[in-house]
Amino acid sequence: MNGDNLKQYDHIIIGIDPGTNVMGYGILGIKGKTPALIAMGVLKLSRFDDHYMRLHRIYERVESLITQYLPDEMAIEAPFFGKNVQSMLKLGRAQGVAIAAALSRQVPITEYEPRKIKMAITGNGAASKEQVASMLQRILQFSKDELPDFLDATDALAAALCHHYERQKPAVARGPKSWKAFIASHPDRVK
To answer: Is 17 an annotated catalytic residue?
Structure first.
């Protein structure tokens, strides 16, 4: 999609599902309050033996997606806590590199836990990747032929759609992220 076609959207959100073997991405365009699929795909990293080269490639790809689609915001899936510490470390690095690429282009980032994303899309925080993909297909009205082989892409698209839903909530429902943020936004209530 070229830049002229992107102008039809009021807001663009890039979703990232970080990984060191496969990184998913999804680009969501918002017109009014209606979300639409712009693009989704994966970056396969298994061809690189060196972990640091994988991280470099993640950075390059996220940066190129930002250049191509000019997103207003990024939604990224937070690493889930597993039993394998080494896997968690690698996943955290992949997430950090994707975040760094967005920050280098001054794209604001919001992180979502996998359960929250699944809940936002399916109404079930324990939904399977297949259930999330199927619900995205219905919500965004794309064909089964457009479903990718790797569900990391639909996971990333789900993060973007979750962010869109969160943006639609009134500010009171979102609330401040901490007491410090509350006090800063309501100095008249604190004496």
So the answer is: yes
